[in-house]
Amino acid sequence: MAVPEISVLLTDTERNLWTGAIVGGIVVVLAVAALLTILVLLVRTIEQRVTTVRDKLQAAVENTEDTALIAETADGVEAVLGEGLKHHLFLGRVYEKVRA
By residue range, what is the domain housing residue 96? Predict the structure, then answer.
């Protein structure tokens, strides 16, 4: 007794449905692969940018570690401004006397 071929057991409609299912499955697999590739690329970009931000923040920390002179500098600036105000007031009084 001979074994019938599989193609003989399927009707044309069933064969078309199977072909559509296989093609649809291949399309879905390709779409998932494309989306996963995009996801990997986006994650890599985000990781690189996070690393850049981390490095910049670390540089900012290193730049502001030596802040002991900030208070002394502020006092110096305050003294310079005070001296400038004295000159301004003096010149204002002298200018009024010279003009009169």
Answer: 71-100
Residue 15 makes CB contacts below 8 A (sequence gap 6+) with 7
pLDDT in tens, 27-73: 999 999 999 999 999 999 999 999 999 999 998 888 777 677 777 88
Q: Letter for the amino acid at 5?
A: E
Q: Does residue 55 lie within any of the structural domains? A: yes
Distance CA 53, CA 73 (A): 30
How many distinct structural domains can be found in the chain?
A: 2
pTM: predicted TM-score of the whole model, two decimal places? 0.50
Tell me, rounded to whole angstroms, the distance of Cα 72 from its chain centroid.
Answer: 37
Instruction: Give the contacts of 10 (CB within 8 A, at least 6 positions apart).
Output: 18
Task: State how far the Cα of 86 lies from the Cα of 3, in Å rounded to an integer.
Answer: 115
Let me know: does 18 contact 10? Beta carbons within 8 Å: yes
Q: Is residue 22 in some structural domain?
A: no
